[in-house]
Structure formats: C-alpha cells, structure tokens
Amino acid sequence: MTSNDPLVIRSLEFMGGMASIGGWRPEAALPEIAFAGRSNVGKSSLLNRLIQRKKFARVSNTPGRTREVNFFKVNGAFVFVDLPGYGYARISKERRAEWKPLIESYLRGSEQLRGIVQLLDARHDPTNDDRQMLDFLATLGVPTVVVLTKIDKLTPKERRERIAGITDILGLDEDQVIPFSAVTGDGRNELAEAIDALLAQPSWKENGS
Length: 209
Ligand code: GDP
Prior knowledge:
Blueprint: E1 12-18, E2 32-36, H1 43-51, E3 69-74, E4 78-82, H2 93-96, H3 99-108, E5 113-121, H4 128-140, E6 144-149, H5 156-170, E7 177-179, H6 188-199
Parallel strand pairs: 2-4, 2-5, 5-6, 6-7
Antiparallel strand pairs: 1-3, 3-4
C-alpha cells in the first residue's frame, strides 16, 4: 500500500448482516457503498483486492451469510455493503428469487447510500438477472459504477471485443466501465478512485431521487 493509494484501509470492522426483509441493519449513520453481482462473479475476490487484505470478505462467503446483506465499517468513516450474490444456477427458482426483495429492502432504506459497484463477468454477456438489477438501479437513480471482473482470463484481443460487446448491450461508453482482475490487480486503483468520488457526493436520496 503506497501513500498515494486513493483508498487506504486503516481499520475494518464487521458490523453484522441483514438477513430478512425489513430486518436488522446498522443505523444508517455513515456513507455507504454497496457491491452487487451474481454468485461467483468474483465479488469476494474483488473486495479482498480492493482493501488489500486476504480474509476480509470471507465472512460473507461463510454458510448462512451468503444470502445476507453484510455491513463492514471502514476506517470508522464509511461502510462497505456486500449484497447477496444473485442468480446462482444450482438453487431452485424459488430460492433464486429471494435476493430481489432483500436487496430492494436494503436499497429503499439506505438513506446514506452513495453508490453501487455492480460487478459483471467480463467473459459473458450480462444475464437477465444482471439486466434486472441494472434496470432497477437506474429506476431508483442510484449512481452505479460497472466493473468487469476476471479480465485476466481474456487475451488483449478478447478483452477489447468483450468490453465493446458489453458496453454496447448496456448502452454505456467504454470509459464508463472498469476492467478488473483480482489476480493481477488491474483496475484496482481506478475502482478505488471511483469509490472515493462516490463517497464525496451527497446521498442519492438527497439528490432529489
Ligand atoms: P463471489 O461468489 O462473487 O464472491 O466470487 P469469488 O470471489 O468467490 O470468486 C469465484 C471464483 O472466481 C473463485 O474461484 C475465484 O478464485 C475466481 N476469481 C475471482 N476473481 C477472479 C479474477 O479476477 N481472475 C480470475 N482468474 N479468477 C477470479
């Protein structure tokens, strides 16, 4: 970690998890940044790389916590919110649909939310669940940063093609997505800067949304 790191993590505290709709969540006193993506997209790996610690997101991946909204206080100053991974193919349709009301419940009650980091697998087109999530965020008017994960798995040529393909599908410019690799650290500082910028903004709810 260098002194010009845009997101130096000095302290980290697991605050607890929101397990049910309208259930317990920490008091919304600090600015929040939430992380969303389908199961296996690389969210835990991204969080660990972002904050330069190996074990941070393990708590979110322990049985019983994977379907909760998990809250982590960073530097005593802001909160990272790890939303449950959605769209896991191997669980039943009924269970698959569970994530939505819980994430919606979290989003609607989050007075201090500054923005969402939405993860998409760089290798694939966005799934229906991804599209639904992005549409939902757009409807609510939550500032959203799109990160394309596992970019190290692509050759430079594939990388250019996939970025062009995904941004085209989503109607975004290429400079509106951050290619990221938890393995090489590509995109880590860019993401940290984007999060810094979101934190400096007023809450989306104060923005007239
Ligand atoms: P989560 O379910 O979204 O939290 O996903 P994980 O972080 O647990 O990652 C799912 C799988 O993808 C694991 O096997 C990771 O090692 C792998 N993975 C995650 N990020 C990357 C990445 O940037 N590059 C590569 N090559 N593999 C990754």
